[in-house]
Amino acid sequence: MSDAAAATHPVHRRQSAFTLVELVASAAIMTVLMLGITSAIVLASHAVDDGDSPLGDTLATSQAVEQIASELAYAREVSEATATAITFNVADRDGDGWEETIRYAWSGTTGDPLTREYDGQGAVVFVDDIRELALTYDLRSSPRRTAGDLKESEETTLLELDSAAALTTGAELTVDTSWGECFMPTLPSGIDSWRVTRLKFKAERDLSMTSPTTIDLAVANGDLGPTGSQVDEVTVDPAEIPTSYTWITVFFGDAGGLSPDEGLCIMFTTSSGKACRLLSMTGVSVSDAIQLGRTGLDWFKVLNGHLYLYVYGTVSSATPIEVTEVPLVVRVDITVRAGRAQQSRVESGVDLLNMPEAP
Questions:
Q1: DSSP label at 16?
Q2: How many angstroms separate the CA atoms of 64 and 51, rounded?
Q3: CA distance 72 to 113
Q4: Is 6 left (phi over 0), alpha (psi -120 to 50) or beta?
Q5: Do residues 217 and 312 make contact, with C-beta atoms less than 8 angstroms apart?
Q6: Is 205 in a helix, a strand, or coil?
Q7: pLDDT tens readout for residues 229-285
Q8: Are the beta carbons of 103 and 90 closer than 8 angstroms?
């Protein structure tokens, strides 16, 4: 055939196709691949934790221990601390002004749950199937000083001005004339303070005496004169004073806290008219006691004279300061195992920032 004829007639080539052998081989290869992929999926699915495996137990236990530790770190008070239970208080969380109480506990029976109780709302399961729980406590001793308490004595006589042999006279109490007595009590050694509980004085009145009698207690100065520092005050109604000399008792409720080196002045006054007539003795001198009088603004001392007067009170002394060693919880170590696998045991510890006192 000439070149011209060849150029005008196209050449037809047969297209290639898969043979039966090739198809069979391909199917076999695909089958092997599918089996491999399926096996990989099955293996991967078994590798994923379903919550019941040792890995699941370990994760759940770790999360639980982390929460216990985070709450314990800020404990302000620990009221229960055993190997399997702990109760403690944390700061107010709900705004009611009261601290919250948290308790973690395990019965000690294998398989029982670890429970958590919050602020008295009842225990709930915190971690299931507990096989091991151990709480151990690191304690530190701290000295605590307790201030001594004041021990008050029975009532005793602080001043006694009474004499059946002395000459007596009446000291009329009016708006212009006042009377009093200053004294320094004789106290036992080691006394920290003293106070007046009551006093009694002898007085009378006639029908012209209708004003109340005021009795002031004031701290005395070094010369047994009134300082103006009032301790207590009572008022006696004129109806309480009879028409003949009688012992009259008055009580004081706030005449305490007096220093052992302080004296006391007892002053009888009235704000108007006439009040009563106080019985006094003359020609008698008593150490550590001075009778006072006042006809103007200033008080003066009455020589060789005293009012008939009894003063009663108590003395107080402080017990020694006590020093005791108090155990403080500074750290709690926690060991928990949930489930059968030994590898699910979780160990941790937490330092207690507030170092509360151990129960």
A1: P
A2: 15
A3: 20
A4: alpha
A5: no
A6: coil
A7: 899 999 999 999 999 999 999 999 999 999 999 999 999 999 999 999 999 999 888
A8: no
Give 83-124 pLDDT, tens digit per residue.
999 999 999 998 899 999 999 999 999 999 999 999 989 999
By the 8 A CB rule, do 188 and 262 touch? Answer: no
Please write down the HEC assignment for all residues of 22-48: HHHHHHHHHHHHHHHHHHHHHHHHHHC
Enumerate the H helices of the chain as residue ranges. Answer: 3-8, 20-47, 54-72
Residue identified by tokens 């106070």 is 195
Q: 3, 64, 49, 1: which is closest to 337 by C-alpha?
A: 64
**Token digits for 312?**
């009663």
DSSP 122-186: -EEEEESSEEEEEEEEEEEEEEEEEPPPEEEPPPEEEEEE--SSSEEEEEEEESS-EEEEEE---
